[in-house]
Write a sequence for this structure.
């Protein structure tokens, strides 16, 4: 596990967690993402959260229709999505590590 | 909205056949699952329901999990109602396709989606919500039970908001359960199944209400058609039964002697069948009926499965039947159809639409037996029965023709069931005698008429159609040249007999004249005889008196002496 924080300048708006208020799955996703970021030494500040129940227009704007969902916009602008409460650690870590540039990479 | 007797509130779809089958529409608050294989028409049916709702001023939201917004609108553009889906005030189309390459980590739900849908429902004032192909999203749930839980939640969410929810789902190949959505058919109040089969290379769609909880409904599997106006359920619409007494009015067939045989023609509003082999003048008689109707100022819908309009009009003109003018005047509407060009239900639907739009007084289908050659002919009898139910309910005088074979001129009439349904049945045929083929006509049945069962000769001339008087020769009815020869012989015999009679009469008259003259002569002779006798007697008396007178003086003299 790498504890080095991710550069804020590189990763701002790179990860977006879409949740539905405090629904159980959304709560679990928040917790699971935070834990994974910590395990991987990634900066939690690179992740923003959008509550679709509070701002439903964002659902249409981002095209995210299942919650919770973790969205990453690649450098080329292509979106990448991981649906679910992020309870499967290996899948989440692959999603974060394979594409997330790390400071020590 | 309509409230069924049992209290279930329904919302009409505006698709008449579907509303008849569901007896009022879909549950006003709750979900309906439409299941079918790819290309069965699930999405079109859902879009049509929304378009018709928007046309009525209602709002609607369509959530697509399979196609982009552009694809959905492009698919709808081929239908007559497409423009309603461009009403931005009342319609929202959400492209909810999962992001390509998206992966899953744990459970997810539809709460975010429902938040967005709620936002759109509020904006459009929607009462209708469609989730099209939600299996594309929910199949990503690792636990199948989760998917059904999501649908259950969705249905409840719609019920709370008085939203009519339509879900489309794919039917698996070998079962009636939806793929990726196992068990959701038990959660929703109504389930419709669209099945597709290939019938002689033509796609045949069938629709069935598998379940409609809390509501009476038609459970039959019925044909479902798609045309430019969208979905149709032709057999779901049951014609209203004819009300009131049957008309007693007779209408002419355009053939005077046939009218006489039928005691004045066909009954108005009745059904007649003309069956016979090819070339026996079925179309010609049909044309005569159409022309006669036009002459009365009535409208005729002429459906031809055999020929196009131009050759029919030309051929009928050659026997003195003019259809060109009444067609131009709009009194006769001629529609040529090809039997192979559609399933039976498609022909039936087209017929019903033509009857509905043209509102004819008279309907001619030439020949109705063509439906037996159309694909899906197993429903031909149903189609014919329903067409006739419609015409009877509307008081339309109907004439059907039917092909027969040489060995059995009535075969297809019987197969098509039309002979049983018809009030009047005319059979045309050929009478071959003396190297000559002549058309014949006989009345097999004519309900309500004391008709003759004699076979008659049907004569086509440039001046029109006629029936020859019956000419019996032994047990046969003579036709054509044989009939004419026999008629000529009879005429000659009648003339000879008349001459003979005249001669005999004259002879008798002469003999009477001679007798009268002889009587006069004898009377004169008698008179002369009587006069002669009288004179002779008078003379004898005078002579006797003279003798007496001469004798008396002598006697007196002798006494004195």
């Amino acid at each position: 596990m790498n504890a080095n924080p991710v550069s804020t300048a590189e990763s701002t708006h790179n990860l977006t967690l879409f949740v539905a208020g405090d629904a159980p799955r959304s709560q679990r996703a928040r917790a699971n993402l935070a834990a994974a970021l910590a395990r991987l030494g990634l900066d939690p500040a690179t992740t923003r959260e959008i509550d679709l129940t509070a701002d439903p227009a964002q659902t249409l704007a981002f095209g995210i229709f299942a919650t919770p969902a973790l969205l990453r916009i690649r450098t080329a602008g292509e979106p990448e999505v991981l649906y679910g409460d992020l309870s499967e650690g290996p899948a989440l870590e692959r999603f974060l590590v394979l594409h997330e540039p790390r400071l020590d990479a | 909205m309509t409230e069924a007797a049992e209290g279930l509130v329904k919302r009409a779809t505006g698709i008449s056949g579907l509303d008849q089958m569901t007896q009022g529409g879909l549950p006003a608050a709750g979900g309906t699952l439409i299941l079918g294989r790819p290309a069965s028409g699930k999405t079109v049916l859902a879009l049509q329901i929304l378009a018709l709702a928007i046309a009525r001023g209602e709002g609607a939201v369509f959530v697509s999990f399979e196609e982009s917004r552009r694809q959905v609108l492009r698919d709808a553009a081929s239908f007559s109602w497409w423009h309603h889906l461009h009403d931005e005030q009342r319609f929202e189309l959400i492209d909810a396709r999962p992001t390509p390459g998206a992966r899953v980590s744990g459970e997810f739900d539809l709460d975010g989606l429902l938040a967005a849908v709620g936002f759109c429902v509020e904006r459009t004032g929607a009462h209708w919500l469609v989730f099209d192909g939600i299996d594309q999203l929910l199949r990503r749930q690792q636990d199948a039970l989760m998917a059904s839980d999501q649908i259950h939640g969705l249905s409840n969410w719609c019920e709370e908001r008085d939203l009519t929810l339509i879900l489309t789902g794919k039917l698996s190949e070998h079962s009636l359960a939806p793929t990726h959505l196992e068990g959701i058919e038990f959660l929703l109040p109504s389930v419709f199944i669209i099945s597709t089969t290939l019938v002689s290379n033509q796609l045949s769609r069938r629709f069935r209400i598998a379940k409609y909880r809390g509501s009476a409904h038609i459970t039959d599997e019925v044909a479902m058609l798609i045309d430019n106006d969208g979905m149709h359920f032709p057999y779901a619409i049951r014609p209203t039964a004819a009300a009131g007494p049957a008309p007693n009015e007779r209408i002419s067939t355009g053939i005077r002697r046939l009218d006489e045989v039928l005691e004045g023609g066909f009954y108005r509003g009745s059904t007649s069948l003309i069956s016979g082999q090819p070339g026996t003048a079925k179309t010609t008689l049909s044309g005569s009926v159409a022309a006669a109707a036009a002459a009365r100022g009535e409208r005729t819908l002429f459906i031809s499965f055999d020929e196009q309009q131009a050759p029919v009009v030309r051929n009928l003109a050659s026997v003195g039947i003019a259809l060109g003018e009444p067609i131009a005047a709009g009194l006769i509407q001629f529609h040529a159809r090809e039997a192979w060009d559609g399933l039976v239900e498609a022909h039936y639907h087209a017929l019903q639409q033509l009857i509905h739009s043209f509102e004819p007084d008279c309907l001619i289908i030439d020949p109705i037996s063509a439906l037996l050659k159309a694909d899906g002919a197993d429903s031909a009898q149903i189609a014919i029965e329903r067409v006739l139910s419609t015409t009877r309910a509307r008081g339309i005088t109907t004439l059907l023709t039917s092909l027969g074979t040489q060995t059995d001129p009535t075969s297809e009439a019987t197969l098509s069931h039309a002979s049983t349904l018809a009030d009047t049945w005319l059979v045309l045929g050929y009478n071959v005698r003396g190297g000559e083929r002549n058309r014949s006509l006989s009345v097999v049945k004519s309900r309500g008429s004391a008709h003759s069962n004699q076979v008659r000769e049907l004569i086509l001339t440039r001046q029109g159609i006629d029936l020859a008087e019956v000419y019996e020769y032994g047990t046969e009815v003579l036709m054509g040249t044989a009939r004419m020869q026999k008629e000529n012989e009879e005429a000659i015999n009648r003339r000879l007999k008349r001459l003979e009679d005249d001669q005999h009469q004259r002879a008798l008259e002469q003999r009477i004249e001679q007798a009268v003259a002889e009587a006069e002569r004898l009377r004169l002779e008698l008179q002369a005889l009587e006069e002669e006798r009288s004179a002779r007697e008078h003379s004898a008396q005078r002579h006797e008196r003279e003798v007496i007178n001469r004798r008396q003086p002598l006697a007196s003299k002798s006494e004195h002496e």
